[in-house]
Amino acid sequence: MGVDLIIYDCDGTLIDTETLYGEVSLAACHALGLTQWTLDHYVDQIVGIPWSDGVKIIEAAHGRALPVDFETRIEEAVALRLENEVRALPGVREAVGAIGGLRCVASSTSLAPLRRNLGIAGLVDLFDPHIFSASQVARGKPHPDVFLFASDQMGVTPRNCLVIEDSVPGVLAARAAGMTVIGFTGVSHDKQRSAARLSEAGAVQIIDDFGLWPDTVAGLGAPAAA
Length: 226
Hints:
With 226 residues, this protein is α/β, with parallel strands linked by helices. The protein is built from eleven helices and six strands. The relative contact order is 0.19.
């Protein structure tokens, strides 16, 4: 294949906010009475999809509507931890910078928090202004909308796009968009299980370290940086 555009997921791929959001959100779910949920359960059910879809899953498990300030409480608790805890994953800047051609971010996170998190992690300059969110399209992952929106905005045919994703919904979305997708397990608690789930969803390869990323994409046809 030829790779004309690399599309990066953000949370759990470029930066490890998934664990942070998971811990805060799980504590909030426990406070509701969903004490049977574990972090793995939360990751399997909620990670990789828009928050509005996650709310429906939590409400179904809870058996009633969530408090009106539930999301606000989570966002406020997360914000208290972000400044000190959000970091780019090891080797991200070097790996991204070593690859030529077009690149962008396409994430389930709403646009303002997405840009904020990339800024805190010191990565926003690598992608700005090509930072896209599921909040800009009708449907979130696992639907392909955000990836198709990103490729359209970047002027690249979907079949010439390569996606890196850490979640099953993200992999399914990329495949539904007609794109090649690499699975990333660098922040997974159970790398073997995550790799199996991502492969089953359609990832053509799995990596767990950004040190492997430039050679991986070169093997798929992406140019090196000039």
